[in-house]
Specification:
- The chain is an alpha+beta fold.
- The protein is about 20% helix and about 30% strand.
- Helix 1 packs across helix 3.
- The radius of gyration is 19 Å and the shape is globular.
- The relative contact order is 0.19.
Length: about 300
């Protein structure tokens, strides 16, 4: 199932992506008299029952074939998959070549940081670039969405605690990081964690074998496969759960491949980008695509 979080008449709603369009869950639930979560908060607080209800509703709608329940995706005002997560965790240097391009040692233990809710942004959202910095960087990432409270879980049982996956762009200001000598300082800016467009449930995705790429204004900057992550999805969930309790709705950015702007000078495969300004600038459009999930698009100003 592909779940959509969107706004209609200034109220947040849940949708389900189908071949007919985006199913408006609230409208269908009311018309058919079937229970369904009215918000993402309700969904995350009532799993797995809420997910089963969405499945039942979708089956009932498809049997009746009522076109009024669907919205054309082009008319959808997307919201971040979860606007109120307890935690947004970012994993560092989880691809070998990315660790190399950053002049870093290959990690032997999970390295991670985080972002805050102010950084969340949605698919198709236009993101402002603050004027007090210049070196704005991107990072295509698979994002894990937690579906069940997780503490001290094993690698073997880690998938039991995952609801699904979405796409993220781990934006950073490199000059702020350099000035503050603090990685978090350049990651916590407003709207610097766009996610979406869909939350794809785990039954539809093999997270450790997905092509991932990022393009800036149509030019591919990053391309890899999640099979090359140093720490796989189950590793990440299990390891993090040893340090903290993971909660439903938490989002984990699993790390970005090589090709970030700050690493171009060190990676021969991207030397064509070294001349001129390679940082994100006003008017740029970035698309992050992950196999079996979709494409997250944002424009900057």
């Amino acid at each position: 199932m592909r779940i959509v979080h969107f706004k209609k008449q200034n109220i947040s709603r849940i949708g389900i992506k189908t071949e007919e369009g985006i199913l408006d869950v609230k409208s269908a639930s009311k018309e058919l008299g079937l229970p369904a979560a009215g918000s993402m908060k309700e969904l995350f607080s009532n799993l797995p029952t809420a997910l089963n209800q969405l499945n039942d509703l979708l089956e009932a709608v498809q049997k009746k074939s009522v076109p009024d329940f669907y919205i054309n995706e082009e008319n959808i005002y997307f919201l971040p998959i979860n606007t109120d997560p307890d935690k947004i965790i970012t994993v560092d240097y989880n691809y070998l070549m990315h660790a190399s391009e950053q002049n870093g040692d290959i990690p032997t233990a999970l390295s991670y940081g985080g972002k805050f809710k102010n950084s969340l942004a949605a698919h198709n959202q236009t993101i402002p670039l603050p004027t007090f910095a210049e070196k704005y960087d991107y990072g295509a990432e698979l994002v894990i969405v937690i579906g069940k409270k997780a503490k001290n879980v094993s690698k073997e049982s880690a998938f039991d605690y995952i609801l699904g996956y979405t796409i993220g762009n781990d934006l950073s200001s490199r000059d702020i990081q350099e000035a503050a000598q603090n990685k978090l300082a350049g990651k916590m800016l407003d709207y610097f964690a766009p996610v979406g467009p869909y939350l794809v449930t785990k039954d539809e995705v093999d997270p450790d074998h997905l092509d991932i790429q990022l393009s800036l204004n149509g030019n591919i900057r990053q391309r890899n496969n999640t099979k090359n992550m140093l720490f796989c999805t189950a590793d990440i969930v299990s390891m993090l759960s040893q340090y903290m309790t993971l909660s439903p709705g938490d989002m984990i950015f699993t790390g970005t491949p090589e090709g970030v702007t700050s690493g171009f000078g060190m990676m021969s495969g991207f030397k064509e980008h070294v001349s001129g300004s390679n940082w994100i600038s006003s008017g740029d459009t970035i698309e992050v695509s992950i196999e079996s999930i979709g494409t997250l698009r944002n424009t900057f100003f």
